[in-house]
Amino acid sequence: MNVSGSPPSVPPMQPDSRVNLLGLTRAGLEAYCERLGSKPFRARQLMNWLYKRGCNRFEDMTDLAKDFRARLAAEASIELPQILRLQRASDGTCKWLLRADADQAYEMVYIPESDRGTLCISSQVGCALDCSFCSTAQQGFNRNLSTAELVGQVWLANRELGFQPGGDRIVTNVVLMGMGEPLANFRNVVPALHILLDDLGFDLSRRRVTLSTSGLVPQIYKLAQESNVALAVSLHAPDDALRSRLVPINRLHPIAELLEACWHYIDEQNGRSVTFEYVMLDAVNDSPEQARALAKRLAGHPAKVNLIPFNPFPGTPYRRSSDAVIERFRDQLLRGGVMATIRRTRGEDIDAACGQLVGQVIDRTVVRLGARVSAAQARDRTRVPL
Ligand code: SAH
User: What is the reported pTM?
Assistant: First the structure.
C-alpha cells in the first residue's frame, strides 16, 4: 500500500474494501491517518467533521489538505446504514428499518420526551439467546452488527431528525436495547461505546448511554475493564427455576453469579446502580410472593428495578399483567427497600416497543443458544463459553 502523503498511484480499492471511518475510535483513526502518511492530529479534524458538524462527504472537509481528501475518498468511506422504511407512531416515536445485507435488516427506535431524546439501537441482526417472551428471539440469529453500523445508527438518527452543526443535540441518550445481545457482540460494541462517549465523538456522558444485557456474566466482568456506561440487566424472575425458563442463559449463569457480576461492575465503575429490567407477565412472574423474593435479593444493593409491561406479539403464549398488578408489584418492591419504576410503553402502534423489534432476519445459524445450553447440560453440566 502507498503510505506517502500523496494520492495513491494504484487504482482505488473496491468500495467494499474501503475502511468505514464510522467504525474507528479516536485511537483507530489516529493510527489510520498515520498509515495514510498523514499526521495523527488529522484524526481530530476528521472527528470534528464527522461528529460535531455531521458531515459525511470528504470533499466538504475543507480544512483537510486536498491530496489527503483525495486519498481518503479513494481508500476510506463514511458509509451510513441504508434506510428501508420509516414508521412514525402517534406518540412521536419513530422506527427505522435498516438494511444489513441483501435480505437482512435491523431496527432502531427514537423515543422523544420533553427533556431528552432516546435512541434505542440494535447490536445484532436477530438474537441467539432465545428468551421466550421476546419476539426478536423468534427470528433467530443472523450476524453481529459492525462498530460502523452501531455508530452509524446514532449518526443517521441525528441527521434524519434534523441535527444542525452547532445546534442542540437531538439524540441525548442511547440505549443498547434494540435487537440482539450487545455483550455477545463485545468486540464491536465496546469501540462503539468509546465513540459515543468520546468528547470528540458524540460526547455523551456515561450515564446517558445504557447497555442492556440478558446476563452474560464473563462479559460483564470484561466490560467493567473497558467501559463505564450504565448497565441494565434483564432479570425478569426472582428465582433460578423461573428465570431459566424465561431467559435460557440463566442455566449457564444463574442469578447469584449474575448479581455478583453486577455489584462488581458498580464497584469498579464507581457507578450509581444497576437497572434490573423485569417484564410483567400475567400469572408468571407477577405475584406478591415473587415481588417479596425479588426485593429480598436486591435490597441493600445498588439496584433499581424497571418494570416493563409485556408487549405481545403474534404467537406468544404470554399476556401482560394488569396495570393494577404492575402497580402493586412496584409498591411491594418499594416497601421492600428497592427503588422501582414502571416503564411507559412507547410506539406500540408501530411495533416499536420493547421486545417487538423483529427487523427482517433470515436465520442462518442452525443452533440457537437454547439448544446449546441443553447440550451443555447434557454434557455433565460443563460450562460452554459463549
Ligand atoms: N438482549 C438485551 C437487550 C435487548 S431487549 C437484553 O436482553 O437485555 C431490551 C429489553 O426488552 C430487555 O429487558 C428485554 O428482556 C425486554 N423485552 C423483550 N421482549 C419483551 C416484550 N415482549 N415485552 C416487553 N419487554 C420485552
Answer: 0.91
